[in-house]
Amino acid sequence: MLRYELLAEVGEGSFGKVYKAREVGEKRRLLAVKKFNFSMSPQEAGIPPSMIREVALLRKVGHFNHPNIVKLLDASAESVGSALDLTLVLEYIDQDLSTFLSKAPACGLSRDLVKDVMQQLLQGLDFLHTNLVLHRDLKPANILVSNHGEIKIADFGLARIHTFNIALTPGVSRRKCLLAASLLSFSF
Q1: What are the φ/ψ torsions at residue 120 (nearest 5 degrees)?
Q2: What's residue 122's pLDDT?
Q3: CATH class for the region spanning 95-184
Q4: Which of 14, 52, 61, 154 is most exposed by smallest CB count within 10 Å?
Q5: β-sheet bridge partners, residue 145
Q6: CB–CB of 170/89 below 8 Å?
Q7: pLDDT tens sequence across 59-68
Q8: N- to C-terminal Cα distance for the chain?
Q9: Over 90: is that where the pLDDT of 166 sits?
Q10: For the segment 79-117, what is each residue's pLDDT rounded down to a tens digit?
Q11: Residues making up the binding site for ATP
Q12: Which residues are part of the catalytic machinery?
C-alpha cells in the first residue's frame, strides 16, 4: 500500500470523499485518494457493484499505461467493525474540464488548444473502445486536465466491458453530450 498524508478534501460523492494527498517517502508526488465507507450489515449490500467495476476496469486498463486514462496506483479494503473502508489511490490531476473551461479567456480557446484537447480525449476513448470498455458517463466533470494540458478520462463507476449479449441501460447510453456543448460554447 502506498503511504500518503492527506492534505485537503477536494470533493465528495454519493459513497465517499476525495482528498488531495502527498506520497510519503522519496517521490513525494501528489495523489488523489478516494475514501469510501460501506456498511456490512445484512440489510445493506456492502460494496456497490459500480465500485467493484471501477476498480476492476482501472486495473485492467492500467496494465497498458495509456496517457489519457487516469491511473489507479493502489486500492485497499479494510474491515472496521461492521463497516468496510475502501481506499483508491489515483494520480492527482489539477482540475476537471469544467474548471479548465471556466478559466478560458473571454475571446475563447484557440483552435489549436481545442484540437489538442479533442485529440487527447479521442485517443483515450479509442483506447477504451479498442479494449471493449464503454465509459457511459463522459462529461466535463469526468475529464481531467492537468496544468500541463494533459487530458485524462476518469470515473469508471458506470463503465462496462462490452459483450455482444449484454443489454446496456438505454438512459445512460442516450445521455446528452455535455462535452461537445461545453467546447462548442467557446468561440475560436
Answers
A1: -65, -40
A2: 97
A3: mainly alpha
A4: 14
A5: 95, 151
A6: no
A7: 988 888 999 9
A8: 46
A9: no
A10: 888 788 889 999 999 999 999 999 999 999 999 999 999
A11: 35
A12: 137
Write down the H helix ranges in 63-148: 97-102, 111-130
Residue type, 160: R
Helix (H) or strand (E) holding 180: helix 178-184
Q: Where are the domains of the chain?
A: 4-91, 95-184
Going by C-alpha positions, the residue among 106, 103, 185 that lies closest to residue 149 is: 103
What's the pTM value of the predicted model, to 2 decimals? 0.81
The residue whose grid cell reads 503511504 is 3
Q: Which of 10-24, 99-113, 130-144 has the lowest mean pLDDT?
A: 10-24
DSSP state of 172: H
Same fold, 4-91 and 95-184: no
Q: Which amino acid is at 35?
A: K
Single-letter amino acid, residue 121: L
Per residue in 144-154, pLDDT tens? 999 999 999 99
| CATH architecture label of 4-91 | 2-Layer Sandwich (3.30)
